[in-house]
Write a structure and sequence with these properties.
2 copies of one chain form a homodimer. With 477 residues, the first copy, chain A, is an alpha+beta fold. Chain A is built from 14 helices and 16 strands. The radius of gyration of chain A is 27 Å and the shape is globular. Chains A, B: Belongs to the class-II aminoacyl-tRNA synthetase family.
């Protein structure tokens, strides 16, 4: 007899033939009611045991965390809280779970405790809901791009180029760690390393994605990227997943349209496909915030917040306008900002972004046309000679969700910029080739996947939205 | 006016309003016929220029590789080879391409040459078709698992565990490469490294995937994996993408069913979605093989071969049966194998696998129940005490496509196996926990994505099915 998943059984919602289901015991109440979960849905199925008809020693083994196999009849539930339940006819314990030793007891655990038991934390409602949503968002992303004519591209993880410039890198090597081979001048002889040169973990697939956009038209990457920065915060990971679309013949306006449409589409996907998980996480967040002062609570419940983003236009504001708003803002005048805004050209800090999004506009904001000096070398210089066609999308509670730009497509302008920043042309000969042969306007953006999952789940720490977080001093599991 | 893609225009196949299209010139014939490609499809759209009405200097800039913008009318084609064409009204060169310097001339280039110009090789028909198919297969994989109740899971790339045992690893570090900090005993002090311990690039996400299967039920990974092995062959990469499903309550038979169903589904997807690209690659392969002796040519054309796999059952054969077949085979008796098969327990080499698949069974073969001694520690020991519930799927022309097993779910048996292989329990405490708390039968497999792309495209070298291959002495781009 083939087994059913709990999701299948609950969706059926009617009396049927005999059923077989395997899963893990969440609770066993009154020696009679087993709440069984198999991960297929947030919801448990209630399995009702006539304890008089079962061996006492068998029933003792029905403990939280035990894996069991249940055979029985699916019937309309007599109790409240579920429409159907299983009248258990046969019961088998597949794997015991010691009632005291098992770390995931049926009680509230701190997220810190669950991080230390990350291999078991998806056995809780919160983390199973988070990871189902993460999976749904991942599929929604692939679906969106595929349906819109994009090709998925796997850019390299190990890179021999250190010109990406997005941050500190991890070195990848097979040289003897203690006694690496040396050149005559005492420097390390990387010619003897696996790749014959110094290599690192990628910080971005953008430059390679550009090569494919300039032949296949519309491409996107979805892969891991790395930052060797000693940032022990609730928003940074050393290893995280990034989505980077890149489109030929698209300018910055098109880029903003794409990013907004994309974000709305994938968020709408989870509204349609993950209602149970979102409702659970919404309640969780409300509970969590009860202990916080009113001013620190989320202004909207989780689902309302997601719907708000899906239904409303993002506010598009130039950097110059944003500086004006910030300069004249209350926290600036009252010197409440840690970094006061006095002049055009200042790099915006998280406090400024949050003010714009959460206090001033109260909706997602797209800032564009940033000063060239605070942005990357490959961004397209505007005709004013001092700003670049860059954009950042800022989300309430999250800050920067997307960073993108129109790319500098003019060979001479790009070369000058690289020269000014001491980026050797030999390093990026292939990137320059794109500007030599059939160059064209093109644009793209990067989206930190974990930031999106945080927004969609209401989780406050990035370590809680990826299975096994990599952070300074932590590479467990 | 919004631009159209070539794919959209060709699909329309009727006379319409004015159209706008941007792309790259493939050829410009008789100062009149531009073959324009934008990557949206293998096919070019023919743009017909009344050269009398255009500036001569403009027309000189219509060279292979140039990016242009064409405005005109879509009309029924007068010539053969296409149903529609564009009568060009306006023409703009967006980016020139020097007619002599441009590396991708309209002629046959060797794959070796194109590997050196991997940033431009998707501007050829062959590589654009290969990469579109790669993208299609990638989406088909996500779609299959999502529709079958699996959750996508991102397992860590940087791992602190060296017990995965699937091969040589790359070290990841931020320590000073030349003068790493040392302990008193002279060993490297990895406590000062970024993660506070020695870390490497993952060789497999399986062990972590097991933790999620044992809570979420059905999960899969699709991510990069690494081997620091000095294998300079047409079938090995140092960095490649792997798909690893893992399912709770599924035994080895279920695992074989899943793998077979999965492979057929994703191959069927490209038959339905990538007919143009497959037809082109089929012709390419036939051309390429014309110079080979009859015996070395593919037994079936590409599409027929894919259909054959989709339509026929894979042959399931135990290792023991396979050894009997090989022992009594002609090449074994005539001593043609490099490694002669004499005894049960021998590890099968590529020559043996190819004999079974290509000569004996002439279809994909699933070998199962291998000797425990030649397989990994986590595979489920059979009751005979000498074989494990492992399976490999062998494909014609490719060899091993899938390797999988039922996992050892019994704590004591697993501990003994680890002890025998000197794998410290402290290293895999979390993996052992799965056997302590609610253990159950579970299984999974790994599929090397590039092997699948090779099979689906008929490409003979693995470096030609991934954008930027990483191999010994090569991390260019």
């Amino acid at each position: 007899m083939t087994s059913n998943t709990v999701a299948e059984l609950l969706a059926q919602k009617t009396k049927t033939e005999k059923v077989s289901v395997k899963g893990w015991v969440r609770t066993f109440r009154a020696n009679r009611f087993i709440a069984l979960n198999d991960g297929s849905t947030l919801n448990n199925i209630q399995c009702v045991v006539d304890f008089e008809n079962f061996n006492e020693n068998l029933l003792k083994r029905i403990t939280t965390g035990a894996a069991i196999h249940v055979l029985g009849e699916l019937v309309e539930s007599q109790g409240k809280g579920q429409s159907v339940e299983i009248q258990v006819k046969e019961l088998e314990v597949l794997g015991d779970s010691h009632p005291v030793d098992y770390p995931i007891q049926p009680k509230k655990h701190s997220f810190e405790f669950l991080r230390k038991n990350a291999h078991l934390r998806t056995r809780t409602n919160t983390f199973s809901a988070v990871m189902r949503l993460r999976s749904s968002l991942s599929f929604a992303i692939h679906k969106y791009f595929t349906e819109n004519g994009f090709y998925n591209m796997h850019t390299p993880i190990i890179t021999g180029s250190d010109a990406e410039g997005a941050g500190e890198m991890f070195r990848v090597s097979t040289l003897d760690a203690k006694h690496p081979p040396l050149n005559e001048d005492g420097s390390i002889n990387y010619k003897e390393d696996f790749f014959g040169k110094e290599t690192n973990l990628t910080v971005s697939g953008q430059l390679e994605a550009e090569t494919y956009a300039m032949s296949l038209g519309k491409v996107y990457t979805f892969g891991p990227t790395f930052r060797a920065e000693n940032s022990n915060t609730s928003r940074h990971l050393a290893e995280f997943w990034m989505i980077e679309p890149e489109v030929a013949f698209m300018d910055l306006d098109g880029n903003m349209d794409l990013a907004e449409d994309f974000l709305k589409d994938v968020l709408n996907y989870i509204l349609e496909h993950n209602a149970d998980d979102l409702e659970f996480l919404e309640k969780r967040l409300i509970d969590e915030e009860k202990s916080k002062p009113q001013t620190e609570r989320s202004p909207m419940p989780l689902i309302e917040k997601i719907k708000f983003v899906v239904d409303n236009n993002f506010k598009r504001v130039s950097y110059t306008e944003a500086i004006d708003i910030l300069r004249n803002s209350k926290p600036n005048k009252k010197k409440k900002f840690n970094y006061l805004i006095s002049e055009w050209g200042a790099d915006l800090q998280s406090e400024h972004e949050r003010y714009l999004v959460e206090k001033h506009f109260k909706c997602p904001v797209i800032l564009f046309d940033y000063p060239a000096d605070i942005k990357a070398f490959y961004m397209r210089l505007n005709e004013d000679g001092k700003t670049v066609r860059a954009m950042d999308i800022l989300f309430p509670g999250i800050g920067e969700m997307v960073g993108g730009s129109q790319r500098e497509e003019r060979l001479e302008v790009l070369k000058e910029k690289m020269k000014a920043l001491d980026i050797p042309e030999e390093e990026l000969w292939w990137y320059l080739d794109l500007r030599k042969y059939g160059t064209a306007v093109h644009s793209g953006f990067g989206l930190g996947f974990e930031r999106l999952v945080m927004f969609a789940t209401g989780m406050g720490n990035i370590r809680d939205v990826i299975p096994y977080p990599r952070t300074p001093q932590n590479a467990e599991f």
